[in-house]
Each structure stands twice: as C-alpha cells, then as structure tokens.
Fold:
Amino acid sequence: MTNRRIFSARENRKRSTKSEGLLWSVLRANQLCDLKFRREHPIGNCIADFACEVIKLVVEIDGGYHDQIGEQDIEREKTLRSLGWDVIRFSDNDVEQDAEAVARAIAKHLQLEYSFKKRYSGGSGMKAVRPSPRDRPV
Structure:
C-alpha cells in the first residue's frame, strides 16, 4: 500500500459526506452483526467507502459526485471483485432516509440475522453514554 493511497484515504475520511457519516455511525465499532468495518479503506488501487476485511465485503454509497463518474465506479467494482471482494451499493438518498434499513439490507445480503448493538463508549470526541446502574440487569 503506497503512502499516497493512505494519505488519500485519510483525506477522504476528513471530508466525508452526510450519507457516509450516517452509515458510519451504524457500521462502526462492530455494531452491525458484530462485523468490523473500516471506512475509506485502501484495497489494491481503490479506496472503498466501507470495507469488512473478514468477509471481504465492500459497501459503496453512490450519489453526488458518483453520478458524474459512473464508468469509473464500474471499473472500480470490477477491480474489487477481481481481488475477491463482494461489493454492495446504496444510494446516498437511501442512507439519508433510513440508515437502519441499509444496515438491514447489508445483513440480508450476507445472509445474516440482523443484529445491532448500540455503542456505549464515546470516542472521536463524543461524550460516553453508559447505562445508569438502575438500567442494568440485576
């Protein structure tokens, strides 16, 4: 992996779109079906929006600038598939209207029972949210 691709992936993370931010809030921290996703993850010559290395799944969000580079997206998908990755795509509108439905569609695509575990720890500057002692089971 070249330093240029790593730098590009980091820059992409800094300027993620609204839909990427919404979907990341659902995919991060092993929340969806206990799968670890990475965002803006370099694979070969490509940078995937979201990738789960264990099952070799790439999740792409199309919209906005993707409308203008459709041919490049098709070539990227062919490259990713040739490297053994499965690719699933969603529109930015789908994510913005219902990120949970997109998460459910990812689980269904993988033939997994949908499960979502809420994050209790902060991170990325967020204030930690923990259940109060009275909310914990006895």
